[in-house]
From TrEMBL:
UniProt keyword list: Hydrolase
GO process terms (BP): putrescine biosynthetic process
Keyword Hydrolase among record annotations: yes
GO molecular function, one term: protein-arginine deiminase activity
Name of this chain's protein: Agmatine/peptidylarginine deiminase
Sections of the chain in a coiled coil: none
Organism: Stenotrophomonas rhizophila
InterPro entries tied to this protein: Peptidyl-Arg-deiminase_porph
Pfam families reported in the protein's UniProt record: PAD_porph
Highest taxon of the lineage: Bacteria
Length: 344
C-alpha cells in the first residue's frame, strides 16, 4: 500500500454517518411519508451508537427534520445538520471517499458523480463533496478532485490494501478502458495493493450496473459476506451461483480462501409491475453494530443470523427498508461513514 495513505475499512472506528434528508424535490416525492419513516428509524438506530450528520437543503427542512426526530424521542444531541443543495439522497455514491494519512489527517477523494452513467441528473450531487469541504465540515482534510466517474457503492475495501469491485459497473462507466488500466488507476487513487474483480452478479431493479455493495462485502481481511440465491426457478439463480463460485476462487493476500457467509434470498418484491432489488448485502457497519436492511420478509431473521456470525462482536439491528428499494437502492446506498477524527 501507499506508505502514507490508507483506505480504511468500514468496520474501523467512525466519527459519524453522513446522510441527506429526503424532501419534495428529490425522487422520493411520491412516497415521501414512507421514506421519512425509514430515515427516522435509521437515525434512531445510528444515534444509539454514534453521531449522525444530516444534510438538509435549507433552514425550513432542518426545522422540519429536527421536529420529526424529536417527536420520535431521538437523541438529537447526536444529530448535526449541515446545509447544502443536492439532487437526491444516495450519499454512498455522491459523498466523500476518505483516505487516512499515517502521519495524521485525511484526503477526501472527489470523483465525478454522473448519476450512474447519465441515467439521472446529478449536477448538484456532483458538487456535494466540494461544498461540504468548503463549509468546514471536515477536520484536517485535503480535497482531491479526480475527473473519473466512480461511486462509493461500486468499491469495497478490506482496509489492508485489497479492493473488490465488479467489471460490469466499471466497464459500463468507462467502456474504452482495459481491466489492467482500471486496476492500476484504482490502486493508485485508492492506495490499494490489488484489485479483485467479479464478472458475475446482478439484481433486477438495480440501476447502478451491479454495485458491489449490493452483492458482496468484506467482513474482515479474510471473510466476505455475499448475497446468495438458492431458488433455482429465480431469474437471479445462475448469476448469483456463478458469483458465489468466483468468490470461492478468490484468495487472501496469504493465499488462503476467504471465509464466505452467504445471505438468504428474499421473496420477489414487485411494485407496479417491476421487480425491486431487495439485497441483504446492502447493510451498514457502525461502531459496535451492523444495521441490516429488513424487507418484511421471512428471510429477514435468517439474514440477521448470518450477519451475527460474520460480525460476532457487533449488535445486528434491522432497519425497515422496503420503502427504499422502490428507488432501486437500500440502506448502505443512502449512507456514508466518516472515519474517526474526520468530523470537524
Amino acid at each position: 500500500m501507499n506508505d502514507t495513505l490508507r483506505f480504511p475499512a468500514e468496520w474501523e472506528s467512525q466519527s459519524a454517518i453522513l446522510i441527506a434528508w429526503p424532501h419534495a424535490d428529490t425522487d422520493w416525492a411520491d412516497r415521501l411519508g414512507d421514506v421519512e419513516d425509514t430515515y427516522i428509524a435509521l437515525v434512531a438506530a445510528i444515534t444509539r451508537f454514534q453521531p449522525v450528520v444530516i444534510i438538509v437543503a435549507d433552514d425550513d427542512l432542518e426545522a422540519y427534520a429536527d421536529a420529526r426526530l424529536r417527536s420520535n424521542r431521538i437523541d438529537t444531541d447526536r444529530v448535526r445538520f449541515v446545509t447544502a443543495q443536492y439532487d437526491d439522497t444516495w450519499l454512498r455514491d455522491s459523498g466523500p471517499i476518505t483516505l487516512k494519512r499515517a502521519e495524521g489527517g485525511f484526503r477526501l477523494l472527489d470523483f465525478r458523480f454522473t448519476g450512474w452513467g447519465g441515467k439521472f441528473d446529478a449536477s448538484l450531487d456532483d458538487q456535494l463533496v466540494g461544498v461540504l469541504h468548503a463549509a468546514g465540515l471536515f477536520n484536517n482534510a485535503e480535497l482531491q478532485s479526480i475527473p473519473f466517474a466512480l461511486e462509493g457503492g461500486g468499491i469495497e475495501t478490506d482496509g489492508a490494501g485489497t479492493l473488490l469491485t465488479t467489471w460490469q459497473c466499471l466497464h459500463e462507466r468507462h467502456p474504452d478502458r482495459s481491466r489492467e488500466s482500471l486496476s492500476a488507476d484504482l490502486a493508485t487513487w485508492l492506495a490499494q495493493d490489488r484489485v479483485l474483480w467479479l464478472d458475475h452478479g446482478y439484481l433486477e431493479g438495480d440501476d447502478t450496473d451491479a454495485h458491489i455493495d449490493t452483492l458482496a462485502r468484506f467482513a474482515s481481511t479474510d471473510s466476505i459476506v455475499y448475497q446468495a440465491c438458492d431458488d433455482a426457478g429465480d431469474s437471479h439463480y445462475a448469476e448469483l451461483q456463478a458469483m458465489g463460485a468466483e468468490l470461492a476462487a478468490l484468495r487472501t493476500t496469504d493465499g488462503q480462501p476467504y471465509r464466505l457467509f452467504p445471505l438468504p434470498w428474499a421473496q420477489p418484491v414487485i411494485d407496479e409491475g417491476r421487480r425491486l432489488a431487495a439485497s441483504y448485502a446492502n447493510y451498514l457497519i457502525l461502531n459496535g453494530a451492523v444495521l441490516m436492511p429488513a424487507y418484511g420478509d421471512a428471510a429477514d431473521e435468517a439474514a440477521r443470523a448470518v450477519l451475527a456470525q460474520a460480525y460476532p462482536d457487533r449488535e445486528i439491528v434491522p432497519v425497515p427498508c422496503r420503502s427504499l428499494i422502490w428507488q432501486n437502492g437500500s440502506l448502505h446506498c443512502i449512507t456514508m461513514q466518516l472515519p474517526a477524527g474526520l468530523l470537524a
